[in-house]
Specification:
Helix content is 47%, strand content 14%. The chain contains seven helices and four strands, in the order αααβαβαββαα. Strand 3 (120-125) and strand 4 form a beta hairpin. The relative contact order is 0.11.
């Protein structure tokens, strides 16, 4: 799932997901079934027949997530999946990804997403690996006195600063 998604505005959500699923090798019947199931998973069952141009930005993001889910890939690669989602849509996405029975590779600068979705974290800066470990290990890199809800973010920032020789 790319960070920015552009789909033909005249296609429906179902048509977009179905077509991309078919393009990945599913037969047309399977593509339609998997597209409908994926749109249901992301909470767009009632908007399947809506044209992309009539959907909000957050809904288009969920169409993009649905097309990734419909692919049945062993690994989902998601780049900033919560961009453009309101808090309720984000919570639904996090809960849904927690139920997905495959690996999820998440690229994100939103530490709340990282903590809520990931069990293992890699911190990269300019192509260099600065950290590999659990989200708890990342939070433990935070300076003393950091608020609990900001520990992962503070740990990330501290690791990046150290990696750049700033600390």
């Amino acid at each position: 799932m790319p960070q920015q998604c552009v789909f033909p505005g005249n296609m429906t959500a179902l048509e977009v997901v179905e077509y991309l699923t078919w393009m990945r090798g599913a037969n047309s019947g399977d593509a339609r079934r998997r597209a409908a199931e994926a749109l249901d998973l992301v909470g767009l069952q009632d908007r399947q027949r809506s044209r992309i141009r009539a959907l909000s930005g957050g809904m288009v993001r969920r169409v993009a997530l649905a097309q990734a889910l419909a692919s049945n890939a062993d690994v989902l690669v998601l780049d900033e999946p919560s961009t453009g989602l309101d808090p309720e849509q984000r919570r639904t996405m996090v809960e849904m990804l927690g139920r997905v029975e495959r690996s999820v590779l998440l690229s994100s600068h939103v530490m709340e997403d990282v903590v809520d979705i990931c069990s293992r974290v890699l911190v990269l800066d300019s192509g260099r690996l600065l950290f590999a470990g659990s989200t708890d290990d990342l939070a433990s890199a935070a300076p003393d006195g950091t608020r609990e809800d900001r520990r992962a973010e503070a740990g990330f920032l501290r690791l990046v600063a150290r990696g750049r020789g700033l600390q």
